[in-house]
């Protein structure tokens, strides 16, 4: 029986070779896209799976109700009191940075080492990397203890068994207490060396409001993290009671004004995709979910092609079914036979998609900057499950339809009068065109949004502005280093002017704190700068004046604010110019002397934050944050100037360190990379969808028109012109296309409007993509169907009319 089924299957594959190829092609493309996106998702979900304590480690976040934002940091007093007063907590770790770099000196050599993590002393209790040398017990207890990875050990010692050796960096002699091997699995926490930032911890020990640390809590086995979140409210209240006294307000007023109002714990292995805010980059689960959904839609389109083509071929197999039923075949055996035929196509497509996925994987990895390999059984399991699902869905519907033919009617040739197959094909074709219309509309809207962002006036000019970062800005007095370099580097040929900003565009290197005026308080960014930095990058002054080096007050308490700062406090520009504000980052008031036009520092996806700018000497601790120098280059010899700057820097400023530099405009352009990738992916998926849909439409129209060749011959004999016949044959498909697009418009509008809500600077929903989707699909449908319709008008009249 099975052998007989296989013979029949291959006879039909050969007979309907075009539809077989289209089914194979569509399913192969759909499954390939599905597997690639599934591997991408699986790779993103695999972060921190290596950690044996992952089920009990949680990443800490705060929630500010007033701003409706999540914060990714915690202060030392909050963390310590949570550890002491919340019974569910077993241990905790703080990190104050995720990538420090130093030039390290040993008895053997001097080498530059990146990717250091300043952490609290219990780091290895939560992150137990494989120990190679030394011991984890008390590994970071002393201020001069350091633990290093095998990579660092080989880089600076040439070997890994170096516990007890001495390394000099950060003007201290550190003792290597442990050497560890970094995990093989994906992780955002892969430090090449860890040490305790003793001075910073000492300064922040009693500072409840210094949210300078990422926090990880290890809960006791079986503890519910929701209990932690409830109990942490008491810790928030404890802090409020202490600080509220200074302001003469109640603890609840303090919480309502300054926050945080709540906390959130995210499991360690869910942090990469599902946290609300992290120190390791903003999670983007939504984008992956969208991509996965789109890949599934392509598979569904392929399945729709399969269903349509199988039901359209019913006339060719009706007599076969009638004969088989007449000799005793049951409905179940016929269904199983048709499912087998579908499964053979699907399994062939699956094998082809595995090969195609392997071929495309290197390009896919390059696109997403990943190192995915096809060695995870989950990929094969879920992709094969998708094949099984497609087999059932795309095989069962036509199988049931075909098996329901009545033997007597099919043998008499009356099956064609059954309208159920027509309605099924038309309905499924409509769904396919709805999906195609959505892809066209979505692709055009995404393209317009990305163009809108890239063409938007940023409020500054980064052209020809070259930023060079200090590698050792946290040593000594960096502001004096900047002032010396400003004078010296101005002499380099090709340098037009020099300035500095703590918060240059595209870097995100700025802090935020509360800004108070009487009973009002807002959260705002703050950035120290040189006197002329706004003019340096072409920012416009709306009211007041710039900072003036001739006025000593401009290095003590005078400041500039942006339009967003004024708006958030509900002031007019005139009111702002008369007021002093008390920032949380200092213990003195700052007087507003100027209002500058808003300009984008971060990605255009976010609204411009309220920002206060002041001279780097105005706030004592800000002087130690001077970490870069900006140089505006003359346009006539930019490449030559960059080479001269690099030579000077590596010879006179930081020999032995890498030259860390970039142009501001190019750096800001990187903030568009994510959306440009989304645009590219949607374009590729759009092309795949249209290709699959149009091939399916061509095959379906071919089969349906072939069934009407006798009608065409009769009408042509009666004098119908070729044009009339072509319109008659294509009219049904054009109506289906029109209905499909009209149905897709409200669906597409809703979904794309939800996508646009993620952007602070977004386009108004355009009409053009919806109109173009309708016109283009009607044209494409007519073009595809009319090819076969035109061929039908050339039918051999004798062949179809000789028995009439």
TrEMBL record:
Subcellular location: Cell membrane
Keywords: Cell membrane, Membrane, Transmembrane, Transmembrane helix
UniProt entry tagged with the keyword Transmembrane helix: yes
Primary location group: membrane
Record's bilayer topology term: Multi-pass membrane protein
InterPro entries: ABC3_permease_C, MacB_PCD, Macrolide_Exporter_MacB
TM ranges: 21-41, 288-309, 334-357, 377-402, 423-446, 681-705, 733-752, 767-790
Keyword Isomerase: no
Superkingdom as given in the UniProt entry: Bacteria
Pfam families reported in the protein's UniProt record: FtsX, MacB_PCD
Domain MacB-like periplasmic core: 20-226, 433-647
Domain ABC3 transporter permease C-terminal span(s) in chain numbering: 293-404, 685-796
Family of the protein in this entry: Belongs to the ABC-4 integral membrane protein family.
PANTHER family: ABC TRANSPORTER PERMEASE YTRF (PTHR30572:SF4), MEMBRANE COMPONENT OF TRANSPORTER-RELATED (PTHR30572)
Protein name: ABC transporter permease
Organism: Chryseobacterium edaphi
């Amino acid at each position: 029986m099975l052998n007989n089924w296989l013979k029949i299957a291959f006879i039909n594959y050969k007979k309907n070779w075009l539809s077989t190829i289209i089914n194979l092609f569509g399913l192969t493309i759909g499954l390939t896209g599905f597997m690639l996106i599934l591997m991408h998702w699986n790779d993103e979900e695999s972060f921190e799976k290596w950690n044996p304590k992952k089920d009990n480690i949680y990443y800490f976040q705060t929630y500010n109700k007033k701003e409706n934002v999540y914060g990714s940091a915690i202060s030392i007093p909050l963390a310590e009191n949570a550890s002491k007063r919340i019974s569910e907590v077993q241990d905790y770790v703080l990190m104050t940075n995720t990538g420090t770099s130093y030039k390290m000196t040993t008895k053997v050599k001097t080498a530059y080492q990146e990717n250091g993590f300043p952490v609290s002393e219990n780091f290895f209790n939560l992150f137990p990397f494989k120990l190679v040398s030394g011991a984890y017990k008390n590994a970071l207890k002393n201020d001069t203890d350091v633990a290093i990875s095998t990579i660092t050990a080989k880089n600076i010692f040439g070997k890994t068994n170096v516990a007890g050796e001495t390394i000099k960096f950060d003007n201290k002699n550190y003792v290597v207490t442990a050497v560890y091997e970094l995990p093989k699995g994906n992780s955002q926490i892969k430090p090449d060396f860890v040490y305790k930032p003793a001075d910073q911890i000492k300064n922040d020990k009693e500072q409840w409001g210094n949210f300078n640390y990422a926090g990880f809590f290890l809960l006791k086995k079986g503890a519910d993290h929701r209990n932690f979140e409830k109990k942490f409210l008491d810790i928030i209240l404890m802090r409020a009671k202490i600080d509220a006294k200074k302001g003469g307000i109640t603890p609840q007023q303090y919480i309502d004004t300054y926050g945080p109002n709540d906390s959130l714990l995210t499991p360690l292995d869910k942090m990469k995709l599902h946290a609300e805010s992290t120190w390791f980059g903003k999670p983007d689960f939504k984008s992956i979910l969208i991509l996965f959904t789109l890949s599934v839609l392509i598979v569904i389109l392929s399945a729709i092609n399969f269903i349509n083509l199988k039901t359209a071929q019913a006339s060719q197999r009706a007599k076969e079914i009638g004969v088989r039923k007449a000799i005793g075949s049951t409905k179940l055996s016929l269904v199983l036979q048709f499912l087998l035929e579908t499964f053979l196509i699907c399994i062939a497509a699956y094998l082809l998609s595995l090969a195609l996925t392997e071929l495309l994987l290197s390009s896919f990895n390059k696109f997403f900057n990943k190192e995915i390999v096809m060695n995870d059984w989950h990929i094969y399991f879920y992709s094969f499950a998708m094949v099984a699902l497609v087999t059932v869905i795309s095989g069962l519907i036509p199988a049931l339809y075909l098996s329901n033919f009545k033997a007597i009617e099919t043998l008499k040739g009356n099956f064609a009068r059954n309208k159920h197959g027509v309605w099924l094909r038309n309905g499924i074709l409509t769904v396919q065109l709805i999906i195609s219309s959505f892809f066209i509309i979505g692709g055009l809207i995404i393209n317009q949004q990305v163009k809108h962002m890239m063409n938007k006036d940023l409020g500054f000019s980064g052209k020809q502005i070259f930023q060079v970062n200090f590698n050792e800005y946290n040593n000594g007095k960096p502001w004096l280093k900047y002032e010396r370099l400003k004078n010296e580097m101005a002499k380099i040929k090709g340098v037009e002017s020099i300035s500095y900003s703590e918060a240059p565009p595209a870097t995100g290197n700025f802090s935020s704190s509360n800004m108070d005026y009487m009973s009002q308080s807002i959260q705002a960014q703050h950035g120290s700068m040189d006197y002329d930095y706004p003019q340096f990058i072409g920012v416009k002054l709306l009211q007041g004046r710039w900072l003036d080096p001739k006025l000593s007050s401009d290095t003590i308490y005078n400041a500039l604010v942006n339009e967003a700062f004024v708006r958030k406090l509900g002031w007019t520009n005139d009111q702002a110019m008369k007021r002093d504000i008390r920032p949380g980052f200092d213990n003195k008031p700052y007087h507003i002397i100027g209002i500058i036009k808003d300009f984008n520092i971060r990605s255009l996806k976010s609204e411009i934050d309220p920002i206060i700018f002041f001279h780097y000497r105005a706030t004592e601790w800000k002087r130690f944050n001077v970490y870069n120098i900006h140089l505006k280059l003359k346009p006539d010899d930019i490449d030559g100037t960059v080479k001269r700057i690099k030579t000077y820097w590596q010879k006179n400023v930081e020999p032995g360190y890498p030259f860390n530099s970039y142009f501001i405009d190019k750096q800001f352009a990187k903030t568009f990379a994510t959306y440009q990738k989304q645009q590219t992916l949607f374009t590729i998926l759009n092309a795949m969808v249209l290709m699959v849909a149009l091939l399916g439409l061509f095959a379906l129209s071919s089969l349906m028109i072939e069934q009407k060749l006798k009608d065409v011959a009769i009408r042509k004999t009666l004098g119908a012109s070729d044009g009339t016949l072509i319109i008659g044959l294509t009219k049904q498909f054009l109506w289906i296309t029109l209905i499909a697009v009209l149905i897709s418009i409200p669906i597409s509008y809703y979904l794309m409007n939800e996508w646009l809500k993620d952007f602070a600077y977004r386009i108004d929903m355009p009409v053009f993509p919806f109109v173009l989707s309708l016109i283009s699909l009607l044209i494409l449908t007519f073009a595809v169907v009319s090819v076969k319709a035109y061929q039908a008008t050339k039918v051999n009249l004798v062949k179809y009319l000789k028995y009439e």
